[in-house]
Amino acid sequence: KNQVEQSPQSLIILEGKNCTLQCNYTVSPFSNLRWYKQDTGRGPVSLTIMTFSENTKSNRRYTATLDADTKQSSLHITASQLSDSASYICVVSGNTDKLIFGTGTRLQVFP
Amino acid sequence: GAGVSQSPRYKVAKRGQDVALRCDPISGHVSLFWYQQALGQGPEFLTYFQNEAQLDKSGLPSDRFFAERPEGSVSTLKIQRTQQEDSAVYLCASRETPGGGSPSPLHFGNGTRLTVT
After folding, report:
1. Which residue in B4, B37, B104 has the most chain A C-beta atoms within 10 A of its own C-beta, making it the best mutation to test that interface?
2. Of A22, B18, B65, B71, whose Cβ has the fewest other Cβ atoms within 10 Å?
3. How far apart are CA B37 and CA A105, in angstroms?
């Protein structure tokens, strides 16, 4: 079983709408959780990094939440733009350097 | 350059050929990672270097895979006797700091897409 599960697998929304992506993890011990955006044919780009003590963190139109008790995180995208079309990957780190990647949510934003 | 650079961008190899994939990390970054990403999947860890020391190679799928970083900067991932299942995007990432669980961001290159025919 994957230690980092993301949902939904794919999502289609209209430009200007909001959406929320989910990430559940079982990695233990837990050190930090990251959200990455990966455009087609490119490497992942970091959006946010959250440590155990952080509940929410925002980066422009992206807001990530973390509940370390339930081992859940979400990424909320506000007022989506066409350029938000990408895969969004949740990555969890324990106390080693081996980051555990989720399989991603494929977001498509249509005009 | 400002980011992580990988070459070649695309590589087509006949089954059985050896390939070498290069990664130029951000200058001064201590940590370097290699990942394998199959189509539609998240990256899977292959190996990790701290400077020139390969501290973790537990993700390398077989002894046909070999990675080195002899001077603590540029790294090469070599795959011997390539098989069709080796077809994937190989991503390199670097990070300024070492240490387990470091919250420093990972900077990824755009990957090398390897196709084995």
Report:
1. B37
2. B71
3. 15
Q: Between chains, do B42 and A101 touch, taking CB under 8 Å as contact? A: yes
In this model, does residue A96 exceed pLDDT 80? no
d(Cα B53, Cα B66) in Å, to the nearest integer?
13
Give the closest of A31, A44, A89 to B101, CB-based.
Answer: A31
Flag if B108 and A44 touch (Cβ within 8 Å).
Answer: yes
Residue A103's nearest CA partner among A23, A41, A43 is A23
> What are the tens digits of pLDDT across the range A40-61?
999 999 999 998 888 999 989 9
Between chains, do B100 and A95 touch, taking CB under 8 Å as contact? yes
* Among candidates B40, B45, B110 on the partner chain, residue whose Cβ is nearest the Cβ of A98: B45
Per-residue 3-state assignment (H helix, E strand, C coil) for chain B: CCCCEEECCEEEECCCCCEEEEEECCCCCCEEEEEEECCCCCCEEEEEEECCEEEECCCCCCCCEEEECCCCCCEEEEECCCCHHHCEEEEEEEECCCCCCCCCCCEECCCEEEEEC
Closest residue in A to B6 (Cα) is: A43
Those residues whose C-beta lies under 8 Å from the C-beta of residue A53, and which sit 6 or more positions away, are none
B89-106: per-residue pLDDT in tens? 999 999 988 765 667 888
